[in-house]
Design goal:
- The chain has 134 residues and is mostly helical.
- It has one domain.
- The longest helix has 43 residues.
- The termini are far apart.
- The relative contact order is 0.16.
Length: 134
């Protein structure tokens, strides 16, 4: 009996389930970083967070569907588990890379925002001084 179709169904269910779980986790916890970067602008933070989640879904589910095809016919349970472990392992690696990429970008944005806030003087300057030698 050919178990290739069974492998496809199991692979899709697990991969899409993992993608949804990671996206929800990133959305829920990443919103704090985005809010900090955008200096408390809640509406903009929600919009950016939603756009990041949509992009995450598009990239990951697109990869999962493109990676669905298998060149081998799966004939037994051992072959089924081996095929699934390779495919799901690659999807998990992609999800991990996407997660680390998101965290890296959000941290970069957060650090830039912190630096910009530190450069702003606490009060408006009262007067100007002419440069020496002018």
């Amino acid at each position: 009996m050919d178990l290739t179709v069974v492998a496809y169904v199991i692979y899709l269910v697990i991969s899409i389930g993992l993608t949804v779980w990671v996206a929800r986790t990133l959305s829920r916890n990443g919103r704090v970083f985005i809010g900090d970067v955008l200096q408390g602008n809640e509406k903009l933070a929600d919009a950016v967070n939603h756009l990041l989640v949509v992009g995450f879904y598009l990239v990951n589910i697109g990869f999962v569907t493109l990676y669905l095809r298998s060149g081998e016919t799966i004939l037994d349970a051992r072959g089924l588990f081996e095929a699934l472990s390779v495919k799901i392992g690659v999807v998990l690696l992609l999800l991990g890379v996407m997660h680390l990429g998101n965290v890296w970008v959000l941290n970069k944005m957060r650090r830039r925002g912190i630096m910009e806030r530190r450069q702003t003087p606490p009060v408006v300057p009262q007067a100007w001084t002419t440069p020496a030698g002018a």
